[in-house]
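Budget justification, computational time. The allocation requested in the original proposal was used primarily to generate structure tokens for proteins on the priority list. As evidence of use, we reproduce two of the resulting records. The first is shown immediately below.
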Amino acid sequence: MLSFLAVDAIYRCSKSGWITEDLFLEWLKHFAQYVNVSTVDPVLVILDNHATHSSLKSYKFCRENGIVLVSLPPHNSHRLQPLDVTFFSSLKTAYSKECDIHIMKTHHYSKIKVTDIAELFAKAYNRITSKEKGLNGFKNTGIFPLDRNLFGEEEFTEMSVEATVGANSDIEAWN
């Protein structure tokens, strides 16, 4: 194994580059091994509402193993997803810096090879990851400690049919 990779982590990729139902289920199984989850002592997993998170196989696995999945409202992960709020921006900046350093070290303006990506990512990840950043993600989203007043209700109202299909649509609004 490459020395810069975390020993207990799993590394997977789909042909499309996007998560699939099978990859998500594999991740759930791996996750369950490391958090000592059980139906007696369940854990909460907060997710965006991507379709791959709602397969029947994943649902059954979670139900049988004490994993409670909570899906965030659509189009709100930038407010409610702890990783989006405190982690991904820093990671993107750190990864960009690692790529710049790599390019400068490898004869200026050479292309980054696919085989270099994992190491560059690991360097960036290890540089910016901290317990404080993780805790702040939950605090800044109002998840923990719970802060019901962090966002106003108007920020989470349901979309009207008119807004969804457009004002000039032939479909009548359901009221």
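The second record produced under the same allocation is shown here.
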Amino acid sequence: EAKNGELKNAHGFGRAIAYGINNMEMQAAIALFTVNVKRILKLAQL
């Protein structure tokens, strides 16, 4: 639930920035990649 909130509020997942299913898939992929990279970097600092 917290990650969904982060995606929606901090990474623009709540609203589409482009039209079409392909563009939405690309937006989702970029947002998920960003969240995963942030998590990896946070875990690497331990």
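A brief technical remark on that second record: The chain has one domain: 2-44.
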